[in-house]
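Onboarding guide, step 5: your first structure request.
Type a short instruction followed by the sequence, for example:

Predict the 3D structure of this protein.
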Amino acid sequence: MSLQEIIILLIAHKYFFLFPFTVIEGPIITVIAGFLSSLDYFNIFIAYGIIVVGDVAGDCLYYMAGYYGGQKFVGRWGHFLGITQENIESLKEHFVKHSGKTLIIGKFTHAVGAVVLVAAGIAKMSLWKFIWYNFIATLPKSLILLLIGFYFGETYNKINQYLDYTAIGTIGLTILFIVIYIVVKKVSKKYEKKI
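The system replies with structure tokens like these:
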């Protein structure tokens, strides 16, 4: 599904598709939701709540894949996510000592986020502890991405408004120059006839 199709679905069905799209691809959907909020398609506060819940739900899917699939998941699907056996072993050891910090850092570093989430499951971290740390990290991350989309949308609106003013001004000036040209031509013809 293309980005344009996603935006069309979000505009047409509003919050109905926002949750599942956030579960699948949180960051880009969050920026799009901010942009659509600036255009008054979404209420930014409702969108923020849905995005936070959807993002944490998506993280829980990675956690469950690690918890229940563990080594099988890494062997079969890990290469798609950039997860290797070596990554998991080193992160498992790290989780014993620094689970909260690791999850929060993983949340903000998108490149290793999936590895950290799956490793938390493989390390059998408490689900409630996992949800809590992810929730805490998701709040500011989602807010920042939402505001980036919102203010980009505001900028887009202002630029669009200025372009509208420029177009109206250009049309007005063109009409004015045509009228002046016609008037000058008629006046000059009258003076030619007199001479």
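Each response can be followed by summary notes, for example: The helical segments are 3-13, 15-24, 26-38, 44-81, 85-108, 113-122, 127-194.
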